[in-house]
Design brief:
Blueprint (H helix, E strand, L loop, with lengths): L4 E4 L5 E4 L18 E15 L14 E3 L1 E12 L4 E16 L2 E20 L2 E18 L2 E19 L4 E18 L2 E22 L2 E17 L2 E15 L1
Length: about 250
């Protein structure tokens, strides 16, 4: 191996002979998504369950609770910069029916997130992480009685994906929100803190050939757990999601 050899020039200055020094290494962490504006839309098919008995029943019908399967939706619009920094506004909505024993009920939840984050490309895996603010509302009606929560607070978002082939990959995502707001039940309103946890994962299909570029579709599962004071409500089901740049 040829090494650089120091020598003294005729003028008394040090010189180095041999291979030129290598360029400084560059990080393999960079934006892995196409910079620019993007949009995402998801259709969810979910059922609800209850963890305890403030208003509903027990988990999986333990106290006569039975949730129907109904549709929900999620949409997002954002802008990603060339260095991976992104800004995003997203919303989620679900409305479904259930019954406790023979009493019919209805559940409706929605939230709106405003997120700022970064998109890193490390090796063959991509990681998104973001922080922001969420406003959420949950309403439950059963046998003429209604209860609800609305609040606002910080939200953390983490998601990762890894390609397996040029057209197929896997993904996983998590969101955690802590919300400060009001719980209304039987005409009484109290200040409380709510926690919303969301987990999901599945397979991702990349459309990067022919006339379709920078588009993808995801098929997976998602679960949510809403804990509001003594009331806990969960959602679980499948999700079909598409996204593209424009």
């Amino acid at each position: 191996m040829l090494m650089g050899i120091p020598a003294v020039s005729s003028g008394g200055e040090m010189e180095t002979f041999g291979m030129p020094s290598a360029p400084a290494p560059t990080s393999d962490c960079d934006a892995c998504d196409q910079p620019g504006w993007y949009a995402e839309a998801a259709l969810l098919y979910m059922t609800s369950y209850s963890g305890n008995n403030l208003l509903l029943g027990g988990l999986g019908g333990g106290n006569g609770y039975d949730g129907d399967w109904d549709l929900g939706a999620r949409v997002a619009v954002g802008n990603e910069l060339p260095d991976g920094l992104f800004y995003e506004v997203s919303g989620f909505w679900y409305e479904g029916d259930f019954s406790v024993d023979t009493e019919p009920g209805e559940l409706e939840v929605y939230y709106i997130d405003a997120i700022i984050g970064d998109n890193l490309h490390c090796g063959e895996a991509c990681l998104d992480y973001g922080f922001g603010l969420r406003y959420a509302d949950a309403e439950v009606t059963i046998d003429g009685d209604s209860g609800g929560f609305d609040g606002i607070g910080p939200v953390l978002e983490l998601s990762g994906k890894r390609p397996l082939t040029e057209q197929l990959g896997v993904y996983a995502e998590m969101r955690q929100a802590i919300l400060f707001g009001d719980l209304d039940f039987d005409g009484t309103s109290v200040d409380t803190v709510a926690s919303v946890t969301e987990l999901g994962g599945g397979v991702e299909f990349f459309f990067n050939a022919g006339p379709v570029q920078n588009a993808w579709a995801r098929l997976g599962v998602e679960g949510q757990y809403w804990a509001v004071d003594d009331l806990t409500i969960g959602l679980v089901g499948g999700v079909l999601k598409v996204g593209f740049n424009f």
